[in-house]
């Protein structure tokens, strides 16, 4: 039985030696007496050599050094002061808490501005968090003296109101910047401004305001709070509040929820447009805007705010546009279509297509696209889509000989 165990151990040792040769591993010359230790009777000597050889065979110094270096680098990256992942994650968590706090202040201010009473439940719904978490947030805001709970709502303190107005000013200024100076799609204005309102310092916000000319309204028609926190009161009623035959001027387009805002954009509505209701049913409201007949579902029409116009005052339009001019015909520019915004609008104005300007069609390309127009002595070629944005008055049309 003992001899059988010895043979089995010898077989294991033989396999180790074969593996070592197969992997080109060299352990150097065997110590004196090692042969006796392996093939002799003392099992303990044989086992000691086996474990020693096995360790030498399996532990590669280069691999061990690589593993050690990897661990050290990982620990440095993770725990390096201020720049390590742990520090960055901590800052991110703090930033997230600050963002939640600021979003809460905006929600409370919106309730105050629109005359709605805010509660822990409304805050939880607006910020998409549990009621318990919203309650903790309320306690935090109260400890910072930004709100004071009076049992009837969550009114802002003066400090909380000023904080919320600064956020709102940054948000709406950034939306105005995106609309006037970039080609960012209207559907994306809100999300981008939502990020910037938490990132810009007050000095950067004022620099932005000066850069874009201190605008009074954002592209949705909302007033932009002044640097001192002043803002006019809310005005207007939902489009659905008008009666058939009644007219109104669009003063606000609600940009949330996103899907409803997309329907408003698809209809071509923009602030300052004049609309007139034709008829309405439970399924749709039909109206004219700049002379064009449009339809909206009530859920979308409710997100369009208008100021009712005096009885008998109707909207503008319909308008002709530059594409209706034939070679040699002239007309006067009435306005740039409200749907033309951002860099496209700025470029057309810079080219001279301002209200009151005389424009003459002179040269036509293939399929009348593009067409060259004479504007203030310059010949400017416009694509069909660009020409459609320029509304004209043909009443003083003259045929050039």
Question: In terms of topology, how is this protein built?
Answer:
Blueprint: H1 2-22, H2 34-39, H3 43-58, H4 61-79, H5 85-114, H6 120-127, H7 131-143, H8 158-181, H9 186-196, H10 202-211, E1 237-238, E2 247-253, H11 258-267, E3 274-280, E4 285-289, E5 292-296, H12 298-301, E6 304-308, E7 320-321, E8 330-336, H13 342-350, E9 358-364, E10 371-375, E11 378-382, H14 384-388, E12 390-393
Antiparallel strand pairs: 1-6, 2-3, 2-6, 3-4, 4-5, 7-12, 8-9, 8-12, 9-10, 10-11
Task: Summarize this structure briefly.
By secondary structure, this protein is of the alpha+beta class.
Descriptive notes:
Helix 5 packs across helix 8. Helices cover 46% and strands 15% of the residues. The strands form two sheets. Strands 1-6-2-3-4-5 form a six-stranded antiparallel beta sheet. It has a six-stranded antiparallel beta sheet with strand order 7-12-8-9-10-11. It has 14 helices and twelve strands. Strand 9 and strand 10 form a beta hairpin. About 6% of the residues have low confidence. By secondary structure, it is of the alpha+beta class.
Helix count, DSSP H or I runs of 4 or more residues: 14
What is the chains' assembly state?
single chain
DSSP helix fraction: 40-55%
Number of strands: 12
Strand order of the largest sheet: 1-6-2-3-4-5
Chain-averaged pLDDT: 81
What proportion of the residues form beta strands (DSSP E)?
Answer: 15-25%
Structural class of the helices, strands and pairings?
Answer: alpha+beta
One letter per element, helices H and strands E, the order comes to HHHHHHHHHHEEHEEEHEEEHEEEHE
- Biggest sheet architecture: 6 strands, antiparallel
Described by the principal axes of the CA atoms, the overall outline is: globular
Give the low-confidence spans. Answer: 16-40
């Amino acid at each position: 039985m003992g001899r059988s165990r010895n043979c089995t151990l010898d077989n294991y040792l033989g396999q180790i030696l074969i593996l070592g040769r197969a992997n080109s591993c060299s352990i150097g010359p065997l110590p004196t007496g090692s042969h006796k230790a392996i093939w002799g009777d003392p099992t303990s000597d044989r086992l000691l050599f086996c474990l020693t050889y096995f360790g030498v065979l399996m532990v590669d110094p280069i691999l061990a050094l690589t593993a050690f270096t990897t661990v050290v680098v990982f620990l440095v990256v993770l725990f390096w002061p201020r720049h390590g992942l742990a520090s960055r994650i901590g800052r991110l968590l703090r930033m997230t808490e600050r963002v939640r706090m600021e979003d809460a202040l905006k929600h409370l201010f919106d309730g105050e501005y629109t005359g709605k009473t805010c509660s822990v439940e409304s805050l939880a719904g607006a910020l998409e968090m549990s009621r318990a978490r919203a309650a903790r947030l309320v306690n935090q805001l109260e400890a910072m003296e930004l709100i004071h709970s009076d049992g009837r709502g969550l009114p802002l303190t003066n400090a909380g109101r000023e904080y919320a107005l600064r956020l709102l000013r940054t948000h709406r200024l950034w939306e105005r910047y995106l609309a006037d100076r970039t080609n960012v799609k209207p559907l994306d204005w809100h999300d981008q401004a939502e990020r910037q309102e938490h990132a810009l310092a007050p000095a950067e916000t004022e620099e932005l305001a000066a850069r874009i000319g201190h605008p009074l309204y954002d592209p949705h028609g909302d007033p932009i709070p002044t640097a001192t926190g002043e803002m006019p009161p809310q005005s207007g009623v939902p489009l659905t509040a008008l009666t058939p035959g009644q007219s109104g001027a669009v003063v606000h387009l609600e940009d949330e929820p996103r899907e409803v805002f997309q329907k408003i954009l698809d209809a071509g509505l923009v602030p300052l447009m004049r609309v007139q209701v034709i008829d309405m049913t439970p399924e749709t409201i039909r109206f004219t805007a700049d002379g064009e007949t449009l339809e909206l579902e009530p859920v979308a029409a409710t997100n369009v705010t208008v100021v009712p116009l005096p009885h008998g005052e109707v909207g503008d339009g319909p308008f002709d546009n530059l594409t209706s001019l034939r070679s040699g015909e002239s007309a006067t520019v009435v306005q740039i279509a409200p749907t033309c915004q951002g860099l496209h609008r700025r470029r057309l104005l810079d080219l001279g297509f301002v209200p009151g300007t005389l424009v003459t069609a002179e040269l036509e390309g293939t399929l009348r696209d593009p067409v060259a127009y004479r504007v203030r002595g310059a010949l400017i070629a416009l694509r069909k889509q660009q020409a459609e944005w320029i509304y004209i008055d043909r009443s003083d049309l003259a045929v050039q000989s």
